[in-house]
Write a structure and sequence with these properties.
The complex is a heterodimer of chains A (494) and B (83).
Chain A lengths: L5 E5 L3 H4 L2 H9 L4 E7 L15 H5 L5 E4 L6 H13 L5 E7 H5 L19 H13 L3 E5 L2 H4 L3 H11 L3 E3 L14 E4 L6 H9 L2 E5 L5 H4 L10 E6 L13 E4 L2 H14 L6 H13 L13 H12 L3 E5 L3 H9 L8 E2 L10 H11 L4 E7 H4 L5 H8 L4 E6 L4 H10 L15 H7 L3 E5 L5 H10 L4 E6 L24
Parallel strand pairs in A: 1-2, 2-4, 3-4, 5-6, 5-8, 6-7, 8-9, 9-10, 11-12, 11-13, 13-14, 14-16, 15-16
Chain B lengths: L1 E9 L4 H11 L2 E11 L2 E10 L6 H10 L3 E3 L5 E4 L2
Antiparallel strand pairs in B: 1-3, 1-4, 1-5, 2-3
């Protein structure tokens, strides 16, 4: 949200283990974070002491780095190093574990970690090779990943696509990098992507991949992903280049400087001759545009989400939970910037939406932050309503309630012969009463003709406010690429 | 086919666990390990092989190189040998 390093603290044992999902989420989505955990005194470490957990060992696979501080004199350097590592290069979580005896000791030691000067360098040979590949392509496509936002390269990518007129697709975490409604932006690719985006990828003869990692939800069956395309891959993390898809041109380094250098070269040369391709892409985008005229009187969640995002305008920030509503938000909301869309992309952690919304609103009080949650995920961190009330955070919550774990139900319907198991949440509590019990304004929307008034009420509320939106449990997310299938095999609903 | 990767890594809490965990997590069996402490760092020779044909030794090398505390790993110190 702010791009700055987030900090969380927890005590030893269960306090530390309760951080694990959050740490894993930060690792998967490259979020800079320093986690400070307590531990038992060093003298009893390794004895199964009360609330002793080897949190450094537990978190090793899900941190960028971790430090066990064994001497108070090492604390200043460890903290400074942790912040540097968390924020530099490809960001991620860093854990600093402090045994109790270290916490109680005193030190006069000053910060001692030397932060190296890192001047971004540009691989001009690679940039020249990228330019040559782009000029040779007839159907180039920009594949934008979440690394663009993280690397502060949003404007650089916007300038590049404006200079070249190359169509673009976006990953979930990159939505808004190029505004959703900009010409040339074909939308999200992958499992719940747009038909125009997925078809463009399959047709493209060159993918210019910027800060993306060929995640399986984006690529579908990898062997059949973009079968005709060469790859120019920009990433700050060398280990991502060639990990899943070989790159014909690798540009490893800071995205901002790399993309700016490429744009400069493209501007210096002739305009690209790709008009037939851009026309085809624009035609496909128009043909596949979403419709909101489904019959019936029930609430159509995609239309409601679209209406909220448009009513809030450029101030809109969505903090999504995980599930069908998350995909509907990704497909239908208008995002003016990548910071306008906060989502648990890599980990897909249900329960993310409410605490993420609280954090986003505290970081950007001027924004209209809306948590978009489903009933399943909302129940996983519902206690955070107390935090909302305690700090008086004027967060808006859209709780889309289909009385089920909707995305799991959808898969069981489509891929497991309607063998429904453990998805029924029809015994949910009354969410309006629950919110009111926490002292939070709440109201219910269960008919389509209540939507506009409800959206206005939600956005106009002075304090925190929850709209409990009841939808048909049979509503599914479309289109859908079945798991393990190629992105060319999209299913459409009725 | 197995490969031996030579790594220099800082002697810090969890460094060995971090390295071995990464190798196994990324889909490689560790067939052998040889380690000697030298001052503030460790010299480690790991003999590894991919669990399936899709595991790429170059990728593993880059992932190891990304670990903080790893001082040296590179093609010049990766030696292939018959399994």
């Amino acid at each position: 949200m702010s791009g700055r390093v987030g900090v969380c603290m927890a005590t030893s044992g269960p306090g530390a283990t309760n951080l694990i999902t959050g740490i894993a989420n930060a690792m998967m989505d490259s979020v800079p974070m320093v986690c400070i955990t307590g531990n038992v005194p060093q003298g009893v470490m390794g004895t199964d002491a009360f609330q002793e957990i080897d949190i450094l060992g537990v978190t090793l696979p899900i941190v960028k780095h971790s430090i066990l501080v064994r001497d108070a004199a090492e604390v200043p350097a460890a903290v400074e190093e942790a912040f540097h590592i968390a924020a530099s290069g490809r960001p991620g979580p860093v854990l600093v574990d402090l045994p109790k005896d270290v916490q109680f000791a005193q030190t006069t030691e000053d910060f001692g970690f030397h932060i190296p000067n890192a001047t971004p360098t540009v691989d001009h040979d690679a940039i020249a090779a990228a330019e040559a590949a782009i000029r040779a392509a007839r159907k180039p496509l920009v594949y934008i990943g979440g690394g663009v936002k993280i690397g502060g390269a949003t404007q650089a990518v916007r300038d590049f696509v404006r200079a070249t007129n190359i169509p673009q697709v976006s990953t979930l975490n990159a939505l808004g990098t190029v505004p959703t409604d900009a010409p040339g932006m074909l939308g999200m690719l992958g499992m719940h992507g747009t038909r125009a985006a997925n078809e463009a990828v399959q047709e493209a003869d060159l993918l210019i991949v910027v800060g993306a990692r060929f995640d399986d939800r984006a690529t579908g069956k990898l062997a059949e992903f973009a079968p005709n395309a060469g790859v120019v891959h920009f990433d700050i993390d060398a280990s991502e280049v060639g990990k899943l898809r070989a790159a014909n041109v690798a540009v490893v380094g800071e995205l901002k400087t790399g993309v700016e250098a490429l744009t400069q070269r493209m501007r210096a040369g002739a305009a690209l001759d790709i008009q037939p391709w851009t026309v085809d892409c624009a035609r496909a985008a128009a043909a596949g545009a979403h419709r909101y005229d489904a019959p019936g009187e029930g609430v159509y969640a995609p239309a409601l989400l679209k209406e909220i995002s448009e009513a809030a305008g450029d101030a809109f920030v969505a903090a999504c939970d995980v599930g069908q509503h998350q995909m509907w938000a990704a497909q239908h909301c208008r995002f003016a910037s990548p910071e306008a869309h906060i989502t648990s992309g890599g980990l897909g952690a249900m329960g993310f939406g409410l605490p993420a919304g609280i954090g986003a609103k505290m970081a950007r009080p001027e924004a209209t932050v809306v948590t978009i949650a489903g009933d399943g995920g909302f129940m996983m961190n519902i206690q955070e309503l107390a935090t909302l009330k305690r700090y008086g955070v004027p967060l808006k919550i859209v709780l889309i309630d289909n009385s089920s774990l909707g995305l799991v139900r959808q898969w069981q319907e489509l891929f497991f012969a309607e063998n429904y198991s453990e998805i029924d949440l029809s015994d949910n509590p009354d969410f309006v009463k629950v919110a009111e019990a926490f002292g939070i304004e709440a109201f219910r929307i269960d008919r389509r003709d209540q939507v506009s008034e409800g959206v206005q009420r939600l956005l106009a509320a002075d304090g925190p406010c929850l709209a409990h939106v009841v939808i048909d449990p049979r509503d599914n997310v479309w289109p859908l690429v079945p798991p393990g299938k190629s992105n060319a095999e999209m299913m459409e609903g009725s | 086919m197995s490969d031996t990767i030579h790594i220099q890594i800082d002697r810090a809490d969890g460094s060995l666990q971090r390295l071995i965990g990464l190798v196994e997590r990324r889909g490689f069996h560790i067939d052998g390990i040889n380690m000697a402490d030298e001052g503030s760092f460790r010299k480690i020779a790991l003999t590894v092989r991919g669990r399936d044909a899709g595991r790429c030794m170059d990728n593993l090398g880059r992932q190891i190189d990304r670990l903080f505390g790893v001082r040296r790993i590179g093609n010049d110190i990766i030696q292939s040998e018959a399994a």
